[in-house]
Amino acid sequence: MPEGDTVWQVAHRLHAALAGRVLTRADLRVPRFATADLTGRAVLDVTPRGKHLLARIEGGLTLHSHLRMEGAWKVYATGERPRGGPEHQIRAVLGNGEHTAYGYRLPVLELLRTAEEDRAVGHLGPDLLGPDWDPGEAVRRLLADPARPLGEALLDQRNLAGIGNVYKSELAFLAAVTPWLPVGELAPDVPARLAATAHRLLEANKDHPDRRTTTTRHPGTRLYVYGREGRPCLRCGGAVRRAEQGDRVSYWCPGCQRGPDRAAGNPRPPHN
Length: 272
What we know:
Catalytic activity: 2'-deoxyribonucleotide-(2'-deoxyribose 5'-phosphate)-2'-deoxyribonucleotide-DNA = a 3'-end 2'-deoxyribonucleotide-(2,3-dehydro-2,3-deoxyribose 5'-phosphate)-DNA + a 5'-end 5'-phospho-2'-deoxyribonucleoside-DNA + H(+)
InterPro entries: DNA_glyclase_Znf_dom_DNA_BS, FPG_cat, FPG_N, H2TH_FPG, Nei2_N, Ribosomal_uS13-like_H2TH, Znf_DNA_glyclase/AP_lyase, Znf_FPG/IleRS
Enzyme class: lyase
Cofactor: Zn(2+)
Strand content: 15-25%
CATH superfamily of the largest domain: MutM-like, N-terminal
Distance between the termini: 10 Å
Helix content: 10-25%
Largest sheet: 4 strands, antiparallel
GO molecular function: class I DNA-(apurinic or apyrimidinic site) endonuclease activity; damaged DNA binding; oxidized pyrimidine nucleobase lesion DNA N-glycosylase activity; zinc ion binding
């Protein structure tokens, strides 16, 4: 699933292509909104909210989409043949005289009143890349359930919006604890440091497609643990491990991170 920095990049590509221009083509290929006619309306802006995308359209409308695991928005010059996948995978088309955006495999696509956007995103916690970023509130929400494993708490978008599986594993490594450690067992200064580090990393990566959490520049070392199962830890040299955590996976270094290797009981799924 794309992380907050990736969604931020998508939103800014869409904004550059669509904002301030009148739609000459608009096609929503979902039954509920198939008859909606947005042509003749200007796109006002495209804004990311955590992992959600909000395209605000003249007349008080917002097109809300979420990429989840497989979704994508691709932008082409108007008249150019789209190459993001088979035609039947296109769920939305928004075009003007210069650019056309195609939404592929979008699992969430809905048209709502701009005044009612909270129905779609009101549950989200402070947005790591948004103007409402509030580290104190993020920490308060993370600690609201002390028994919850850190990895689950970080993925829950109701706590802080924008963290996905990559940042979850990387943040736990940088905090030197496993993703299964209950948040109530974190040292007192760790939650605030986690929030600050998450904000710093997403800000640093939002303009770069090749995400990086390390400071080393050697090939294959952009991330500390994510995707590095069986490879040497960049700090201690021990083997990085991988295990399921709920419906996701976590990566960690047993030599560098303290805490349990597995969670007991049935984990609660993260909220998008």
